[in-house]
Specification:
Number of helices: 22
Strand content: under 5%
Helix content: over 70%
Number of strands: 0
Radius of gyration: 23 Å
Number of domains: 1
Shape: globular
Largest sheet: none
Structural class: mainly alpha
Order of helices and strands: HHHHHHHHHHHHHHHHHHHHHH
Length: 452
Amino acid sequence: MFKKFVNICVSLMSKYLPDAFLFAIILTFIVLISGILATGQSPVQMVSHWYAGFWSLLAFSMQMAMVVVAGNTMAQAPVIKKILTNLALVAKTPGRAILITSFVSLVACWLNWGFGLVVGALIAREMAKNVKGCDYRLLIATAYSGFIVWHGGLSASIPLTLATSGEALARVTAGAVVDAIPITQTIFSPLNLTICAILIFGLPFVMFSMRPRPEDVVSVDPKLLVDIEIEDTEVIVIADKIERSKIMWALTVLLGYTAVVLYFINKGFNLDLNIVNLIFMSTGILLHGSLKRYIDAINIAISNASGILLQFPFYAGIMGMMVGLNAEGGSLAILLSNLFVNFSTKLTFPLFTFLSAGIVNFFVPSGGGQWAVQAPIMMPAGKALGIDPAITALAISWGDAWTNMIQPFWALPALAIAKLSARDIMGYCIITLIVSGIVISGSFLIYGLIVA
């Protein structure tokens, strides 16, 4: 029965889900029309909001493009290829390949979401190359499903924001939170750790149970996944010698790692996208053994970032329309959040906060954007009901992570590495959405019962 339902989801998504870019375009017009009807703004105003947001994610787009390019380039180094191959050889069977890919991806995403997105996809690709009988679509969906735990992990943007006090925190929470809330009350709280543990140790078996019958497996020709080999060209002129200079290579590696060490000394083990990318780049340069080989590897990997560069501005435009205010100070995002607040009680507030965050995240797929939209509404409402602000923040965080499972925005890096489209994996990701939704909703509902 379960596999039949999985097959239905996979079939529907593969037939009817449009390309990720067209999906973004469809969402754009849905939000534009909804804004006109729900907030009373004119088409001109909504288009103005769209353009105001369109370029707002340029820095983030570059960061994400570098995650894909630098991570992929590092993976092309012979040493990393060998490590990934050996890990795949340990799997031996399709079932083990799914379990290993899922667990590694979940743990990696809990440690740092950018690192996890790349590592999971790379491991899944290597499993497809070396383990016969693996369904490639399920492998990549498994790798991406690890992303479900990112906002409960060490790189969770909302809990980390709460851990820093100041005027900005008081302003964004509409005065509901003034003093910093330590991560012991959010990331390392019993509620959050329980949700993370259930997903990290339970989701691999859910993915394992989705394996198709042997006759339904969609495998991929391993030759199609083989990276282009980087060959050393003949040294002819002085410029060739400079490109292969071990001195220039060593100085560049030293510069990168010195910056990394200084970062950790000054900021502790607080990984953000910038330092993750610098680690990827420095390690890639080190392992390739010369600047010339690294340049060649970058040129091969850079085409994988095309989807991100094309689609992220359109999602930024959608976010602009979602938060664009009318004359009364209302927006689509505010209307959605208030809808859930209006019929919440102390029992249901954490659950409804999670659900509303999940809906808003579908149109505002950014942790920072989600917080800016919902914190001024949910944090004061929760405080008025006597809900711990840390719990309200966690509910927003998990809602932000939850619907990423059916939002192609965050799947783009994994899809780029895998050379697949969103329709190939979303059928399986729907199951992840349902299972994780039950776990997270149940946890917040139990919390509501305890405090009510």
